[in-house]
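Title: Prediction job returns without error message
Component: structure pipeline
Severity: low
Priority: P3
Assignee: unassigned

Description:
Job completed but the reporter wants confirmation the result is attached to the right record. Sequence as submitted:
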Amino acid sequence: MPIRRRYADCRDGQIHVREAGDPAKPTICLFHQTASSGVMFEQVMARLEDRYHLLAFDSPGFGQSYQPAAIPDMRYVADRLMEAIDSLGIARFHACGHHTGGCAAVEMPRAFPGRLGSLTLIGPVLVNEVEKAEYRKVFVRPFAAEASGAFLATAWSYLEMIGAAATVDLHCREMVDHLIARETMPMAFSAVWNQDVEGAYRSVDVPLHIMCSKDDVLWPLFERAGTMRPDAVQSIVGGADFQPDRDPDGVANALDAFLRGL
């Protein structure tokens, strides 16, 4: 069945959602990285729609969702996404967040007790203060729009650096998403670097699954995530920073195996 699109309401505007599968089956809510959109999960959704009900959200300021005036912190993102989930009538779900999407998802278990059946983090962002300072040098405002258009080449090169150049189609798609999010991307990155992600991660009280690829920019943090939570199920997949696009079989199989084991 083709992926369906719809909008869900939240306090500050509308959230764009991609949907696949039977709503009577267990629901997986998917949250994307900065500055992508829910489209990055479409191949994974296609592989799991016979077993699950899947919802991929465009976060506030990204894709086709509303543009916020500010993203003050990751709890703001988590709250707006949960409001959208509520408006769709979803009472309980499994959460899967990729990079920044994981930073929003990791806020949910303690903010909304009893709502999550499990949490999967693809590329956990478990950065310390020294690392945050280094990441801020690159991952806050990778490019700024200006009249000459030279920033387009800068954006194209930035996307190549993080793995989007695997195919021309992926590179172009991500270019469009990054241009849409050119104002909100630095807001989201700043919210990530200001987050107490370790506190949120340690407090997760639902079954936990962490996933990464060895060529992901966040791979150096994966061992730390496993050491900090030895109870977490660990999966290694391929695909650099775009695992759901570049290794959809690996991501879908790992997520399905984790959920079946609950």
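Comment from assignee: result matches the submitted record. The chain has a mean pLDDT of 96.
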